[in-house]
Amino acid sequence: MKHFFDEIRLEVYKAVKQDVKKILNQIGQEQIYGAALVTDSDCITLYFAVNTYEKMREKDLKYMNMFQAHLTEEKIEGLKNGALSMTKWVPAEWAYSGGKESELNNVSKLLYQKEEANSAEYEGNTALFFEAVTEAWRMLIADKILGEKTEDITYFVSMSDDNRSETIENYSASQLNRQELYEAFLKRAEERA
Q1: Residue among 8, 176, 1, 3 nearest 107 (CA)
Q2: More exposed terminus of the chain, fewer Cβ within 10 Å: N or C?
Q3: What percent of the chain has pLDDT over 70?
Q4: pLDDT tens for residues 174-183?
Q5: Which residues of the chain form beta strands (DSSP E)?
Q6: Rounded CA separation 75/52 (Å)
Q7: How far is residue 106's CA from residue 30's CA, in Å, rounded to a whole number?
Q8: Residue range 40-55, pLDDT digits in tens
Q9: Residues 6 or more apart from 168 whose CB is under 8 A from it?
Q10: How many Å from the N-terminal Cα to the C-terminal Cα in the chain?
């Protein structure tokens, strides 16, 4: 199984390198603050998401207007002045991803096939999955895939539909970011509206 996940690490690396080209063209001059590789609770799907301060603000204001009747004045004020966010650390709400054309779809197919072939063995080796994805991130960060400001971006691995998400996000963020960014990431609940 280790050999399989070594191959997955390289496939994730190559797929994200391809996907990021399209995403950077879409982003233009916007300022990226976060990038995540997101899986599901079975670790058989994987997608790449990126967000910018500009798109976060846009979506937060949209949601603030939609849910204003349910928000306190303090939360509304925090959303207006940017001190709070409904979407900052929620990759499913982010503006940019590889989408239907993502190269990571091929990686997801490989993961699905492996899981189908022997689900008990696959489930017992999810730690290898997370090691592979985190190591792929390390390689991509070293390559400065998101440009010269790569070191100012917070990177993490997330799980979209599981109560283990926060633990996975925190651990991966501790491995992928400099201390200052990691500590700010740990305080994300305080920024939530």
Answers
A1: 8
A2: N
A3: 99
A4: 999 999 999 9
A5: 32-39, 46-52, 96-97, 154-159
A6: 21
A7: 29
A8: 999 999 999 999 999 9
A9: 130, 157, 158, 159
A10: 42
